Amino acid sequence: MITINKKPNILVIGDLMIDHYLWGSSDRISPEAPVPVVDIKKETTVLGGAGNVINNLLSLGSQVGVISVVGDDEVAKELKSMLDKAGAKSFLIEQKGRKTSKKSRIMASHSQVVRYDHESKNSISFESEKKIFEKFQELINRYDMILFSDYGKGVLTKELSKKIIAYAKNNNKKVIVDPKGEDYSKYEGAYFLTPNKKEAQIASKVQIENPDTLKKALVALKTCANLQYSIITLSEQGIALLKDDEVIIRPTVAREVFDVTGAGDTVLASLGFALSLGNDLVSSIEFANLAAGVVVGKIGSATVTLDEIEEYKSSLNKSSIELHIKTFDEIEKIANRLRTQDKKIVFTNGCFDILHKGHVSYLNVAKSFGDVLILGLNSDESVKRLKGEDRPINTQEDRAYILSALECVDYVVIFNEDTPYELISKVKPDVLVKGADYEGKEVVGSNIAKETKLVEFVDGKSTTKTIEKIKSVGK
């Protein structure tokens, strides 16, 4: 992973917009025209365009400023409010008569029926350009890095882009650009650009088919825009970097790809984040690949956190079973994240020495009470104190591994204390589950969980009886 030694301050300049969704269902066709009638159930809005870069930077832990141009309309007020709520410091120039971008999508059963856009796509006025540049000159020394998020909506004009990049270079500030269009000379002097393969082919006029043509395209882009480095993102193949006349490719590894929407925004944000902390370019690219691997496993324009990247990185080097065994610190972060996702967390604990049908039945019932089951497992020392010196039969590592392989168990955490109170206080479960033999007794952690549930054991099934049976066979 990259070195994180401070909270970077990054400035984003580009095209802001609101992504607006109308969610509903459709079970009939309109009598007025051959179109579905959608019964709207809810309405949501998220920051789009450069706003997705901003959201990614904020989720990584950066402080973020944004400069852009909006209209003098209600959408601009809504956009400003959303930026404030997200935690970004916004410097928005209002241009009379301009329409602030808002893209509305009507969704029926998670399928998009139609999209309608409210926006201006023409270049901003000379007066707006002047105001942006003046604001940039005023703010530049507050920021470690400048990111251009160009969606082709007219904010980053050729003249303005060149002026900002030149001024940034004179002040020893790097500018990284997610480009748009065919003419990359507008980004002359940038540190590097982050075009995808298709965009790079159009801008370089080189068809990328093999290592030779990839290098040719990278050289063409570097020459065209007088870049410090040349980069092309290659989707699942990773990111290609031209450095000292050598092409370096760092692959990305995605466990599952659900949606590539917004992956380019995540790459731009994570590269800017890593580099602003003083990390070298190759390490920053590897970090960006991990971030992209996380977001393509989500649905919709997604953001990524440092915890998710760390967990994802560790998952690439572990078996899927070992990945479910967590430390106290890891499970606390996971539980916090699950709560932000509105997941119902269930917790139970025990020794689970020799796994049998009663254990599995109990755990299956426990899992049915929520979305995620976290199991606190007594350590070997803890089991000895509870059960005697001849227990456990199986080591904590073996027990944790076997339990993690069960479909109903999401995470296993080993604890060494006599009770799991400290662990429960970190997890803060919605539901605490114990055996029915606790009826009328105080359940440790019940004052932390929202509710406590008792589950009946399977008659005749216990580790003690299993051990007795094994001993009787040996006689």
Automatic annotation (TrEMBL):
EC class (word): transferase
Gene Ontology CC: one annotated term: cytosol
Pathway: Nucleotide-sugar biosynthesis; ADP-L-glycero-beta-D-manno-heptose biosynthesis; ADP-L-glycero-beta-D-manno-heptose from D-glycero-beta-D-manno-heptose 7-phosphate: step 1/4; Nucleotide-sugar biosynthesis; ADP-L-glycero-beta-D-manno-heptose biosynthesis; ADP-L-glycero-beta-D-manno-heptose from D-glycero-beta-D-manno-heptose 7-phosphate: step 3/4
Superkingdom of this protein's organism: Bacteria
Keyword entries, A-Z: ATP-binding, Carbohydrate metabolism, Kinase, Multifunctional enzyme, Nucleotide-binding, Nucleotidyltransferase, Transferase
Gene Ontology MF term list: ATP binding; heptose 7-phosphate kinase activity; heptose-1-phosphate adenylyltransferase activity; phosphotransferase activity, alcohol group as acceptor
Catalytic residues in the record: D265
One Pfam family named in its UniProt record: PfkB
Residues that coordinate or bind ATP: N196, K197, K198, E199
Start and end residues of each stretch annotated as Cytidylyltransferase: 347-475
Region described as Ribokinase: 1-319
Catalytic activity, as annotated: D-glycero-beta-D-manno-heptose 1-phosphate + ATP + H(+) = ADP-D-glycero-beta-D-manno-heptose + diphosphate; D-glycero-beta-D-manno-heptose 7-phosphate + ATP = D-glycero-beta-D-manno-heptose 1,7-bisphosphate + ADP + H(+)
Enzyme Commission number: 2.7.1.167, 2.7.7.70
SUPFAM superfamilies: Nucleotidylyl transferase, Ribokinase-like
Residue ranges of domain Fe/B12 periplasmic-binding in the record: 371-475
Function: Catalyzes the ADP transfer from ATP to D-glycero-beta-D-manno-heptose 1-phosphate, yielding ADP-D-glycero-beta-D-manno-heptose.
Quaternary structure, from the entry: Homodimer.
Record family assignment: In the C-terminal section; belongs to the cytidylyltransferase family. In the N-terminal section; belongs to the carbohydrate kinase PfkB family.
Protein's UniProt name: Bifunctional protein HldE
Organism per entry: Malaciobacter mytili LMG 24559
Lineage of producing organism: Bacteria, Pseudomonadati, Campylobacterota, Epsilonproteobacteria, Campylobacterales
Gene that this polypeptide is encoded by: hldE
